[in-house]
């Protein structure tokens, strides 16, 4: 077959807002051939999801309209009557959404939800549909599919749920699967599993995939052809390998250059800023090397030893404690002024809890946190408030961490006034100063958080954290929610601030490529424990622990040439940190592989995973 | 930062501050990806250089002081604005009414019983020939005062109980909620009877006949109306206290009191305002019920509810008798509800008006 399966010509989509139509997709054209994977890639607001929703006619009917043509097997999807379109949806074209937590109905069993589509589109009986559902769950490699058919979605992990969603999408053997950021909400190892699964299913079923993502690494991993979108326009389209080899458009080049690449830091002694490529001219700005921020003779600014945090799980009639989440278990590390220590690991590994326990936003159960030699965990409330000036936090979601009813100027001035570091006039002056420092204009102080873009909000959060002149900043996934190019800028800002102010960062992240860029040292966490810690070069160059290796192997590499070079990943799930009340954590031993590089001695339970991770 | 970033003059920076554009996102995106819903707002963020050197966005033009901004936003809510005028007219009417319409409320005239509206009696008369307009003016003072005062009592008690329960991590929270449930489960009318028989005489001695009944009714209605507010506030607090901006303020050294007053309470007020306006209307109606049962104000003191209940036996022959107090209650309740809506929107900086 040479005719494209889907031929989108000059697609435009407008939304009505306050009576005026506003076009957000301006004439996008692309084709998807049978059995082909096409990636629509772009940053938030580029119109990639809206384009896909318009194709499925899932945009709100009263307040949106689409123009152009979208020929699917010769029929124009945009002109089909609604009844015909309903038959196409979920049958010939299926969709997978980003959030596996919300795309399944929590009050229906997964078996019913998969069977639903089959009964609707294929007219199968209940029994036949359920038998087919079991087959589909097997296809997406859900263990013990038959027995799990009548389970509710909450009994599955995020990765498993996404498999169920994919099984639902595959139920009617669609010719085209539209996957809208299907792996964005998942951990890297789970993301790698889902991508593998999608690829093999595509080969078996012979379907085409329209893959929407913001992640160039994922694009390199999966797409045959790529369409780069920006501002609702397709700025560049072509063979994925060709785009990665030599992109034509400056924006594509800018996008590619700001994608952190694992392994790009080999041989660099210190953290390095991201190069910034102009989106209009394509001119590259190579970052000058940062000065050495470490003074080796210093006593560590922060010394954490034996930190343990547990959460009680209550249940039953009288709220008895029935179990405990061992979120952080006997974690020790130290951090010097001007140094960045990264805590990496997947969701649920306790890295955020560690950061919050250090600031005592969560009360740890045991251990000590010495800030400048003083134990933060033993301070009374007033002394703690006083000492918190020395350590501040930058949160993951800049929007959630700013009070929506407070102007950013007030938000930044608040810690100054709270800690009586100055009167109102001084606070105003310092606010203007801080805004300028983080690259914003001082007269933005009167605006509310919702009037800023994501990257600007994170700058505001950084300014607020700097207001009390802290020496330690806990950055909890601070750049994870940002678009790649913005992420690069915020990382650059943090590095510059470290160089000029001598800040110590506890950088909590799941993104290995960013971590490689910013860290002096790296600690890998798994199930609440540090399994490996050492200088950045040692962790990335010579990882020892099987989990570290697995983590590094799962990171998508933004280089189509290296596709498939990776070994197959196991379908292992991260184990559960919930323990019985009488659980005694095993004694852990660490061995030093090279100066400063320690690794936990692992037991037999890691051995089976080893060949897969190698 | 700015030094290392090449300028990109062609990027359309105005998007960053254009509220209409920012407000665009939810409808299409709710069906699909989070990235777009967060992201359309962050469209401008997609460009390097932008965050570093954003010049003044047009949004700056309409920046006002805090109170001015709230008034600007409130005045964009047309129904709320109209309601302010309606309510103001009602309040002015009952306050200035006796001056403009100096007819006695107890001027019995058997020659003019159950008359419809006329020049002598604009709202007609009741079965004793008393002038309804004068009685409405007098009754309106009591009804409005009872409604507002009872709302204040209910809201203050509800806010206190709700925020204590919402902030407590120990035994206090469940305890307060048990008390709330207990109050919700109480049979209210028998309780009202009991309270009124117990305390009426004592209060009358202290505050006088009318004052005593007023204080009693306000306390009884407010004291039995705070539970929904408390539950609302607690629910809001439970979710707000875990929000990152609260945690951020805590990590900057804010005391619990500061967190509650500056961050949690202002964000919890929206639903409370709406609940408060509903409380005003239900208090006006509850007062009517009490008057009807003979437990409120003495029968010779007219309130809107009392007039309405007196009128019920003559609905077929003297419709006007029920119509005017009914209309007054209706207009009051409706306008207060709209004002509540407008206030909620005006106080919410995120909402685009």
UniProtKB/TrEMBL annotation, chain A:
Instruction: Using the UniProt record, give the first listed, main subcellular location.
Output: membrane
Offer one Pfam family short name for this entry.
ABC_tran
- Keywords annotated in UniProt: ATP-binding, Cell inner membrane, Cell membrane, Hydrolase, Membrane, Nucleotide-binding, Repeat, Translocase, Transport
Locations listed in the record: Cell inner membrane
TM stretches of this protein:
none
In what residue span(s) does the ABC transporter domain sit?
6-256, 302-552
Q: How does it sit in the membrane?
A: Peripheral membrane protein
Q: Which GO terms describe its biological process?
A: peptide transport; transmembrane transport
The EC number of this protein is: 7.4.2.10
**A GO molecular function for this record?**
ATP hydrolysis activity
What does UniProt give as GO cellular component?
plasma membrane
What's its catalytic activity? glutathione(out) + ATP + H2O = glutathione(in) + ADP + phosphate + H(+)
- Name the InterPro entries for this protein: AAA+_ATPase (IPR003593), ABC_transp_ATP-bind (IPR050319), ABC_transporter-like_ATP-bd (IPR003439), ABC_transporter-like_CS (IPR017871), Oligopep_ABC_C (IPR013563), P-loop_NTPase (IPR027417)
Q: Which NCBIfam families match?
A: PRK10419.1, PRK11308.1
Summary of the function given for this chain in its UniProt record: Part of the ABC transporter complex GsiABCD involved in glutathione import. Responsible for energy coupling to the transport system.
Query: Would you identify the family this protein belongs to, as annotated?
Result: Belongs to the ABC transporter superfamily. Glutathione importer (TC 3.A.1.5.11) family.
Subunit info here reads: The complex is composed of two ATP-binding proteins (GsiA), two transmembrane proteins (GsiC and GsiD) and a solute-binding protein (GsiB).
Q: What protein name is recorded for this chain?
A: Glutathione import ATP-binding protein GsiA
Native source species:
Lichenibacterium minor
């Amino acid at each position: 077959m040479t005719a494209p399966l889907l031929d989108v010509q000059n697609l435009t989509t407008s939304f009505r807002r306050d009576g005026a139509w506003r076009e957000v997709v301006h004439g996008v054209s692309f084709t998807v051939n049978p059995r082909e994977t096409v990636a629509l890639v772009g940053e938030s607001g580029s119109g990639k999801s809206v384009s896909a929703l318009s194709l499925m006619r899932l945009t709100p009917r009263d307040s949106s309209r689409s123009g152009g043509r979208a020929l699917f097997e010769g029929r124009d999807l945009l002109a089909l009557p609604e009844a015909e379109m309903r038959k196409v949806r979920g049958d010939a074209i299926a969709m997978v959404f980003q959030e596996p937590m919300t795309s399944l109905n929590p009050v229906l069993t997964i078996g019913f939800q998969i069977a639903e589509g089959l009964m609707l589109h294929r007219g199968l009986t209940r029994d036949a549909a359920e038998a087919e559902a079991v087959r589909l769950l097997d296809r997406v490699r859900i263990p013990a599919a038959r027995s799990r058919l009548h389970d509710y979605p909450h009994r599955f992990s995020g990765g498993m749920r996404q498999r169920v969603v994919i099984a639902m999408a595959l139920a009617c053997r669609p010719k085209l699967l539209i996957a809208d950021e299907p792996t964005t909400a998942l951990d890297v190892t789970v993301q790698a599993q889902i991508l593998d699964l999608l690829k093999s299913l595509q080969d078996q079923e012979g379907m085409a995939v329209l893959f929407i993502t913001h992640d160039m690494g994922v694009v390199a991993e999966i797409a045959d052809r790529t369409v780069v979108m920006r501002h609702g326009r397709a700025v560049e389209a072509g063979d994925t390998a060709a785009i990665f080899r030599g992109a034509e458009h400056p924006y594509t080049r800018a996008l590619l250059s700001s994608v952190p690449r694992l392994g790009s830091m080999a041989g660099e002694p210190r953290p390095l800023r991201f190069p910034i490529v102009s989106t209009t001219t394509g001119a590259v700005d190579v970052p000058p090397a940062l000065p050495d921020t470490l003074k080796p003779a210093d006593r560590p600014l922060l010394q954490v030893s034996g930190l343990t945090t547990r959460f009680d799980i209550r249940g039953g009639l009288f709220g008895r404690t029935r179990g405990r989440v061992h979120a952080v278990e006997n974690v020790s590390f130290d951090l010097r002024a001007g140094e960045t220590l990264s805590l990496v690991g997947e969701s649920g590994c306790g890295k955020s809890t560690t950061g919050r326990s250090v600031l005592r936003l969560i009360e740890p159960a045991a251990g000590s946190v010495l800030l400048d030699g003083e134990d933060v965990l033993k301070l009374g409330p007033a002394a703690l408030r006083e000492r918190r000036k020395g350590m501040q936090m930058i949160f993951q979601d800049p929007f959630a961490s700013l009070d929506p009813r407070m102007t950013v100027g007030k938000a930044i001035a608040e810690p100054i006034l709270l800690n009586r570091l100055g009167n109102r006039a001084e606070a105003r002056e310092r606010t203007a100063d801080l805004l300028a420092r983080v690259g914003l204009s001082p007269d933005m102080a009167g605006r509310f958080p919702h009037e800023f873009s994501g990257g600007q909000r994170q700058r505001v959060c950084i300014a607020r954290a700097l207001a009390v002149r802290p020496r330690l900043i806990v950055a909890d996934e601070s750049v994870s929610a940002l678009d790649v190019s913005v992420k690069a800028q915020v990382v650059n800002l943090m590095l510059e601030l470290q160089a000029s102010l001598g800040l110590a960062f506890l950088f909590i992240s799941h993104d290995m490529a960013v971590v490689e860029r910013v860290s002096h040292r790296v600690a890998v966490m798994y199930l609440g424990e540090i399994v490996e810690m050492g200088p950045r070069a040692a962790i990335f160059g010579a990882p020892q622990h099987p989990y570290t290796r697995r983590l590094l192997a799962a990171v998508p590499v933004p280089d189509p040439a290296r596709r498939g070079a990776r070994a197959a990943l196991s379908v292992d799930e991260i184990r559960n940190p919930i323990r019985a009340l009488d659980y005694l954590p095993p004694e852990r031993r660490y061995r030093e592989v090279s100066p400063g590089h320690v690794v936990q001695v692992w037991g037999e339970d890691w051995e089976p995973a080893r060949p897969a991770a190698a | 930062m700015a030094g290392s970033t090449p300028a990109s003059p062609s990027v359309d920076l105005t998007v960053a501050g254009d509220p209409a554009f920012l407000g665009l996102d939810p409808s299409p995106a709710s069906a699909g990806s989070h990235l777009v819903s967060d992201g359309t707002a962050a469209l401008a963020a997609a460009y390097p250089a932008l965050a570093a050197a954003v010049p003044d966005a047009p949004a700056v033009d309409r920046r006002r002081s805090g109170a001015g901004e709230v008034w600007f936003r409130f005045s964009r809510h047309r129904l709320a604005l109209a309601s302010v005028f309606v309510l103001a007219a009602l309040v002015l009417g009952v306050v200035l009414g006796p001056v403009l319409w100096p007819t006695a409320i107890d001027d019995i005239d058997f020659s003019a019983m159950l008359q419809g509206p006329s020049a002598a009696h604009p709202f007609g008369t009741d079965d004793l020939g008393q002038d309804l307009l004068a009685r409405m003016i007098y009754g309106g003072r009591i009804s409005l005062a009872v409604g507002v005062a009872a709302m204040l009592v209910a809201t203050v008690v509800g806010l206190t109980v709700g925020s204590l329960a919402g902030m407590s991590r120990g035994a206090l929270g469940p305890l307060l909620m048990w008390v709330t449930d207990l109050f919700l489960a109480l049979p209210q009318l028998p309780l009202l009877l009991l309270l009124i028989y117990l305390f009426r005489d004592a209060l009358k001695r202290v505050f006088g006949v009318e004052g005593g009944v007023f204080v009693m009714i306000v306390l009884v209605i407010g004291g039995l109306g705070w539970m929904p507010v408390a539950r609302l506030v607690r629910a809001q607090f439970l979710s707000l206290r875990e929000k990152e901006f609260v945690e951020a303020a805590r990590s900057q050294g804010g005391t619990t009191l500061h967190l509650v007053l500056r961050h949690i309470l202002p964000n919890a007020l929206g639903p409370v305002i709406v609940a408060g306006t509903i409380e005003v209307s239900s208090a006006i109606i509850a007062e009517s019920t009490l008057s009807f049962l003979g437990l409120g104000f003495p029968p010779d003191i007219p309130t809107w509810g009392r007039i309405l209940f007196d009128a019920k036996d003559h609905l077929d022959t003297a419709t006007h008798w029920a119509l005017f107090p009914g209309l007054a209650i209706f207009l009051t309740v409706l306008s207060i509800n709209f004002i509540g809506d407008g206030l909620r929107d005006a106080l919410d900086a995120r909402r685009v008006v």
